[in-house]
Amino acid sequence: MIILERVSRIFRSRGEAIRAVDDVSLEIGEGQVMSLVGESGSGKTTTGKMIAGLVTPSSGRVLFEGRDIRTLDGAARARYRRAVQIIHQDPYACLNPVRTVGDTLAAPLQLYGLADGRSRNAGIGELLERVELTPASAFVDKYPHQLSGGQRQRVAVARALSVQPKFLVADEAVSMIDVSLRISLLNLLLKLRQETGVAFLFITHDLALARHFGWDGRIAVMYLGRVVDVGPTRTVIEDPHHPYTRALLAAVPEADPHITRTKPRLRLRSQDPPSLLHLPSGCAFHPRCPWAESGLCDVIRPELTHVRAQEVACHVAVREGALPDLAATT
Amino acid sequence: MDSLLSIRDLSIAYRGRGGTSQALREVSLDLYRDETLGLIGESGSGKTTLALAVLRMLPPAAHIPQGQILYHHDGRTADVLSLGAERLRRYRGEEVAMVFQSALSSLNPVLRIWDQFLDTARAHGETDPARVRTRTRELLSHVQLEPERVLSAFPHELSGGMRQRVMLALALLLRPRVVVLDEPTTALDILTQRTIIDLLRSLRREFGFSMMFISHDLSLAAELADRVATMYAGRIVEIGTTDELFYEPRHPYTVGLLQAVPTVHGDHRTLHSIPGSPPNLQRLPAGCKFHPRCPYVRPVCTEAEPDLLHVSNGHRSACFFWDEVRR
Amino acid sequence: MNWATLKRNPGGALGLAGFLAIVVLVVVGPLVVPLDTTTRLDQIYQPPSLAHPFGTDNQGRDVFSQIVHGGKDLLWVATLAAGISTVIALTLGSISAVAGGSVDNAVMTFTDVVLTVPHFPLLAVLAGVLQFRSQTLLAIILGVLSWPALTRAVRAQVLSLKERDFVEAATALGLGRGHIIAREILPNMRSYVAISFVLAMTQAIYAQVGLVFLGLVPLSGQNWGVMIQYGWTRGAIFHKSSVYSILAPIMAIAVLKLSLVSMARIFDEIFNPRLQEG
């Protein structure tokens, strides 16, 4: 349903060109869940915003139902607008502080035809109930600052639902909510997926969340603006083919003392933080990669290639069919 | 075991617009020599208030109706809450140091890193810049930063992970015996978190200080802590060794937290959020403050608030029915 | 706004009270207090007394009645001028910020050009050419000269608000630019706009009094500025009992401006729902 075709986005800052997103191709079908995982600077948020049409690609195309979104005319464009919605990360910024919950939800309902006051109120009530903010009457006249972070996110979800979207971009939607409450918001999103068949792009830096939310779906790992690893979530996490994915899994701390204190580490070659301003030549990960081969990885940029069920952008993994064991990994 | 820091029945409240918030309610705690203690809690738990109290850095709106913070040193004991200005100044930095989150505002944005080290050293009586420079370079190397590159930089020129490491080095400048860390890995990328965690471990081994960190991240406790305390609504609800809390938790809130955290390994468990919402510190319910959200709730829970009850040696839980609580 | 707000801000409450008192005085007052136009040569420059609370002027006329009648035009021009400049600034500033690109450049260049034109000399020239006989014309001229500064400030605010998540969400929902400016962005600037409006009023008052004082505006009608002008040119400051006739209009203007500025303090609290919690 949504296809990114070799999409790039370049930002200019003080004369420097920053390739925030670099030649990314992704495909998300109807009703599918795609988790987009990466660290800061990976380009995942920019990618999400390009899918939502909020940022224009510098090159490449974004296709919605087969058509380039830039070529869509009036009615088709409006349909696209409604179909793709975004849930933001910060519950304290996602709602207009001077409007009540009711006002915020009324605006899109009114825009899309429910002009009559009574049916609009009914519509608002129904939306609030779908996001489990009950009784609706208790929330309609509240201002955002009177709600908790989790409740605000639910209002943001209700707002997105008001236009009956087919695709939701969740940009770190739970990372600023208390840990003990995250799951219920994620379960709400999953429930909505079951009810309406909406597809998701779930952007997060938290691998465990991506695994949980995207259990039945796919995962794409981004590094310095490029997609380096794509495949079914379970497969990529259990048997990662890309060195960066391996590094992430080895590094992520886990809530189980025995596992986390004894799990094998992956020593990276360089401690330097990656920087979009100084993109390495060839493979972006090569300065830190334990498998990097001089003359190959620092010269030629690897393309996403099929290796069994996944697609990997790594010369060594593709050539060997899997990453060979390293001599010392602890 | 030698106790370095003893907190006894500490209560702290904030006066605010809507009333008084009970941020901490009769908290008692010991931090021993050569250990890492993890305080785990979410919004409203009081963990940040506790950390700030240890350094007496509470905002003006806070007042302390009761309690003591005692610092034990060389056989003597100091009452932190009643230290005079000069001794307090020496206490902060030389005895107990604090490392804040890696936000840009934790370091002075208009001073170079070197100046911040020098200022700190000077404020504590060190007059020889050469000595400070040597020690600073040594510390920066320990935290895996290149001294020359970092010392002449401004905070905004460094990444979040680098800033966090600078703050660690700064905290250790005066050789404190206790280091308090506020959310040391929150908002950092996975790979950067790993660096900081490994660094904290090795620094503790190298310099021998005791560490107390506060976080909402259970996995941090799993990595670093010797003992863990979970906090809820201004109180410690469970405390014990790391293994005890993770494998044999005896408080419904601890269990709830463990069940709410997704993992990278293992089966696709059914995860639950803890039902209900975080406590309103201005209007706390009667009895046990967790009872509105607790699956083990009984009538007595709505009337009386349990103290930390003995589960085993060193392991205590503030739940009347702790022996029924299971993961 | 409620009593709690007023109690929390004694300064603002006082300002509001003062402003309302002046409004009542200059709007309702003229209907109650007749303007004293009788010349009494035996009562020139009398100090304040029960019969004449502010004393008398150089022709024995009651100063208090002149004060009562002399505020309306001043207030009307100030309000109209502030209104015009605020409306222009809001419109241009928000359109410029939201449209961006060449539109933004064009509008800002134009703004800068107008901003650099020195007001008083221009007003002096216009006074000679147009002869401000109508108060409304004066208001329009003042309004048209003072919008540039506010426009830049509005633009800056809108640019920053534009980046907020809830504005992005509104764009994603397809709620067009008009809605975004009018219903999402501007309501977040209410207190800023109100404060700017009030400050623009004080500027307009200043400008009017200055114009009158310099004799650039025809000295017709009753006007606190005119009173000051007369008093000054007739040397009223030089005598102990005559000074009241010039002091009274000066104090009236000062009290008006002080009230306006004090009142502005509570705007932030009135317009910000977060601060309204009791």
Short recap of the structure:
The complex is a heterotrimer of chains A (330), B (327) and C (278). Chain A has 330 residues and is of the alpha/beta class. In chain A, 34% of the residues lie in helices and 22% in strands.
Verbal overview:
The complex is a heterotrimer of chains A (330), B (327) and C (278). With 330 residues, chain A is an alpha/beta fold. Chain A has 2 domains: 2-220, Rossmann fold (3-Layer(aba) Sandwich); 245-329, no CATH class. Chain A has helices spanning 44-51, 74-83, 101-111, 117-130, 137-140, 149-161, 179-196, 207-213, 233-238, 243-251, 257-262, 315-320; strands at residues 2-13, 16-28, 33-37, 59-64, 67-68, 84-87, 167-171, 199-204, 218-223, 226-232, 305-307, 310-312. An 8-stranded mixed beta sheet of chain A has the order 6-7-8-3-9-10-12-11, with helices on both faces. The termini of chain A are far apart. The mean pLDDT of chain A is 89. Chain B contains 10 helices and 12 strands. Chain B has helices at residues 47-54, 85-95, 113-123, 129-142, 147-151, 160-172, 190-207, 218-224, 242-247, 252-259; strands at 3-16, 19-32, 36-40, 62-73, 76-79, 96-99, 178-182, 210-215, 227-232, 235-241, 309-312, 315-317. In chain B, the strands form 2 sheets. In chain B, strands 6-7-8-3-9-10-12-11 form an 8-stranded mixed beta sheet, sandwiched between helices. A 4-stranded antiparallel beta sheet of chain B has the order 2-1-4-5, with helices on one face. In chain B, helix 3 (113-123) packs across helix 4 (129-142) and helix 4 (129-142) packs across helix 6 (160-172). The two termini of chain B are 30 Å apart. Chain C is mainly alpha-helical. Chain C has a single domain (15-28, 51-272), classed as MetI-like fold, CATH 1.10.3720.10. In chain C, helix 8 (135-162) runs antiparallel to helix 11 (190-213). The longest helix of chain C is centred in the N-terminal third of the chain and has 28 residues, at 72-99. The mean pLDDT of chain C is 83. The A-C interface holds A 52-54, 78, 81-82, 84-86, 88-90, 93-99, 107-108, 111, 143, 145-146, 156, 159-160, 162-163 and C 164-166, 168-175, 179, 183-184, 187-188, 190, 271-274, 277.
